[in-house]
């Protein structure tokens, strides 16, 4: 029953996110986090909402939580973007490098890492 309810709330969060209702989506995602099975996806989605609100510090915190639950999580790339957008270029490079190690075929990972290197004057 709890899983069923969590799934419905997660779906509501997805609907709100699609409607770009970032704050409401964050609240929906926050309420579903007690279900371990879908927590990493929920944290990722919640972090994405914070990204859209340009609250990169909160986004990075949520990506950290998602990564703690699943180290093979695509959140490394997204956390790298949050770090880049907040001027933390070395942290962004580290995350892009980790994302590349998990998926070498994603050209955006390489591109964004190059941009971060450029900001540091290393390209």
Features:
123 residues; 2 domains; 7 helices; Serine Threonine Protein Phosphatase 5, Tetratricopeptide repeat; mainly alpha; single chain
Estimate nothing, just give the exact number of structural domains. Answer: 2
Unreliable spans are: none
Task: Quote the beta fraction.
Answer: under 5%
Tell me the CATH superfamily of the largest domain: Tetratricopeptide repeat domain
Characterization of the model:
The chain has 123 residues and is mostly helical. The chain has 2 domains: 1-71, Alpha Horseshoe (Serine Threonine Protein Phosphatase 5, Tetratricopeptide repeat); 74-123, Alpha Horseshoe (Serine Threonine Protein Phosphatase 5, Tetratricopeptide repeat), CATH 1.25.40.10. The protein is built from 7 helices and no strands. It has helices at residues 2-18, 22-32, 36-52, 56-69, 75-85, 89-102, 107-119. The longest helix is centred in the N-terminal third of the chain and has 17 residues, at 2-18. The mean pLDDT is 89.
Q: How is this structure best summarized?
A:
By secondary structure, the chain is an all-alpha fold. The chain contains seven helices and no strands. It folds into two domains: 1-71, Tetratricopeptide repeat domain (Serine Threonine Protein Phosphatase 5, Tetratricopeptide repeat, Alpha Horseshoe), CATH 1.25.40.10; 74-123, Serine Threonine Protein Phosphatase 5, Tetratricopeptide repeat (Alpha Horseshoe), CATH 1.25.40.10.
